[in-house]
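#lab-general

N.A. 3:47 PM
ok so I finally got the sequence cleaned up, no stray characters, all 258 residues accounted for. can someone with queue access submit it? mine expired

B.Y. 3:52 PM
send it over

N.A. 3:53 PM
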Amino acid sequence: MNEFLMRDGAPFGEDTWKHIDEVVEHVARQQLVGRRFIELHGPLGFGAMAVPLSHLAKGDAIYIAERELLTFKLLQQDFHLSSEEIAAAQHAGQPLDLAPVAEATVRLALQEDEMIFDGLRKVKGAHTLPLGEWDKPGGAFATVAAGLEKLTAAGVYGPYALVLNTKLYAQLQRVMMGTGRLESTQVRELLGGNIYFAPTLKAQEGFLIANSPYNLDLAVAQDMVTAYVGNEGLNHMFRVVEKLVLRIKRAGAICLIK
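B.Y. 4:20 PM
back already:
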């Protein structure tokens, strides 16, 4: 892997690369939303160019009628560290300030989530559900219940995940009249699954998804990793990079709330 990452050209050794990898892993785990409810397939290797997606035919017997190849998408975010900062850290014997690594990882995580939710939003054959009276007590519960009814009527069963815009998620944190319980608790029990919020979602938008891996997954060629790009003057350039693609195997497992 070091060959395509060109890490040997960087002006520091393995200890600093270890710290960089730890920052990327830690920040990505904190920031990524899609991976909390979509299972991963892979990683398959940086050289992988595409992954198959099967389409089923349903008659007396169910079988794979055809396959298509989905091309992996390359996502990346650059950052740089100055020679002065690197020299100062080496001279003082202190770890290098890796704030640029963390910020680059945050931005790449946003790119990944935007790719995932854009794919969910545009898939043909998904269900749509009006937001209804979400802003009123009990309105969110009624909307989610209607979404579950749509999915089960189509033969799509749990487990389920509910992903909401930040404002819609906040509105769930209210007490249901006559129960003394949060509406989010009631919705979670109705789903038998988890509720997430995603800042990258559009205003007044959410998804109710039957998130088993046979319905959808995230195929990964290369997970987030940092490469050395080279120097530009006294700045050393780096790139956090990943290759992945969302595989939606069953469009009817997705319900767009808007």
